[in-house]
Amino acid sequence: MTPEERLDELEEALEESLEEFGDCKWSRDYGELTLTVPREQLLDVMRILRQTRSLAFEQCMDVCGVDYSAYGDSEWTTGDAANSGFGRGAERGDKPAPDASNRFAVVYHLLSTSLNHRLRVKVMLDADFPVVDSVRDIWTGVDWFEREAFDLFGILFSGHPDLRRILTDYGFIGHPFRKDFPLIGEVEMRYDEELGRVVYEPVSIESRTLVPRVVRSDSRYEQGWKPEPVAEAGEADA
Q1: pLDDT by residue (tens digit) across 29-62?
Q2: pLDDT tens-digit map of 9-24
Q3: Which of 72, 75, 78, 161 could be cross-linked to 92 through a Cys-Cys bond (beta carbons 3.0 to 4.6 Å apart)?
C-alpha cells in the first residue's frame, strides 16, 4: 500500500467514526493528516481515536504547545531584547496572524502500531484562558508532555493530577516559549555566600544580538555550478 493509499484509508475511517462531530476538520499536510478538534470535544474524539478498531491509535507520541501570536512575522517583539539579527520567524506571505481567540494550540502526534498510520491532532486555545482537558487517562505517557507544555507555554490541562513545572525552576517567572517572553529572561539567580542560599535578582545583563549578521557567499548555490568530477584511481596516477 502506498503512502497516499494509506492516507485515503485513514481519511475514510475518520469520516465514518467522527460523523457526529461536524466541527472537526482535517487536511493533508507534509504527508500526514491533521485533525483540528474544538477543545470541548477533545476527550470524546480522543477516546474514539484510541478505541475504534479502524483507527486504533494506541500511542500518543508527543504533546506540544504552539504560540501563534506572531505567526507570519519574520521578527517578533520579545520585551526589550534586540531584534537586529537574523529573522527568527518564517515569512508566510499574506497569511494573517490568528486573533486572540486562537493564539495558542496544543498539538498531539498519535501512532497506530497495529495499523501503521499516524495522525496529527490540533486544538486551538484563546489567549486569556488557554485551558484544555488532559488526555492522561487515555494515554498515560502524556503526563510529562503536558507538564512541559504548561511550563513553557502556560497552557493548563484540566484534570492532570500533577500539573507543575518540569524544566524550569519552581520560582521561575513566566513561560519562556511564549513569543512575548523577553530573550534575556525576567530574573537572574546566583548563590549568596553570606545567606547560604540561591537568591533571585533583576536581570543585569545587557540585551544583545547573539547571532551576528553575517552573510557568507557559497559557490554551491550559484546558478550553473556543478561539482568537479572525482578522478578514478588510475587516472590520478596518470
Answers
A1: 888 999 999 999 999 999 999 999 999 999 999 9
A2: 999 999 999 999 989 9
A3: 72
Global confidence as pTM: 0.77
Distance CA 186, CA 45 (A): 39
What pLDDT sits at residue 82? 47
Question: What are the angstrom distances between the C-alpha of 146 and each of 75, 79, 114, 139, 149?
Answer: 28, 26, 25, 11, 5
- Which residue intervals of the chain are DSSP H helices? 3-17, 42-51, 143-153, 233-237
Q: Tell me if 97 sits within 8 A of 77, measured CB to CB.
A: no
Which of 50, 61, 5, 55 lies closest to 31, judged by CA?
5
Amino acid at 232: E
Residue 145 backbone phi and psi in degrees, to 5: -60, -45
**CA torsion sign, 80 to 85 to 87 to 89?**
negative
Distance CA 81, CA 179 (A): 12
* Cell numbers describing residue 101: 481567540
Rounded to whole angstroms, how far apart are CA atoms 105 and 158?
15
User: In terms of Cα–Cα distance, which of 145, 148, 123, 127 is closest to 136?
Assistant: 145
- Give the rounded distance of the alpha carbon of 12 from its chain centre: 27
Cα separations in angstroms, 171 against 106, 144, 198: 24, 19, 11
DSSP 20-53: T-TT-EEEEETTEEEEE--GGGHHHHHHHHHH-T
pLDDT tens-digit readout, 132-155: 999 999 999 999 999 999 999 999
